[in-house]
Design a protein that fits this description.
4 helices, alpha/beta, five-stranded parallel β-sheet, globular
Length: about 120
């Protein structure tokens, strides 16, 4: 069975990529148990708690990432360097994640046969 990685690297607002990626992860979880989710670059903002997208007429879907645990998606990785560069900490994220440096993220991504980027 193919191992699938979902990579979030864009900010949550300004495009539908984040919402579509989340939908894809949840849908794919019904077909495979070999899933991992990665948050790198501006994608770390997808998980930032306390967002107020209503101010820009956006939808607050960040809490929906909490469904990952319900869908038994346990491999959720966040790039430590991406968090630090943006002045964020792991405590500010809406869900529990596995913090990895960029080298470890690359190593873990290499283990996956399919990589989908959002």
């Amino acid at each position: 069975m193919n191992k699938v990685a979902f990579i979030f690297h864009t900010p949550p607002h300004g495009s539908a990529a984040g919402r579509e990626g989340l939908d894809a992860v949840l849908a794919a979880s019904a077909l495979s148990e070999e899933l991992a989710v990665f948050f790198i670059d501006d994608g770390v903002y997808q998980l930032k708690s306390g967002q107020a997208p209503a101010a820009i007429h956006g939808r607050d879907y960040a809490p929906t990432f909490g469904l990952l645990e319900l869908y038994d998606i346990e491999r959720v990785y966040v790039c430590a360097e991406s968090l630090a560069e943006r002045g964020l900490t792991q405590a500010e994220l809406t869900i529990d994640t596995i913090l990895c440096d960029a080298h470890e993220i690359g190593r873990r991504l290499a283990e996956h046969h399919v990589r989908l980027t959002f």
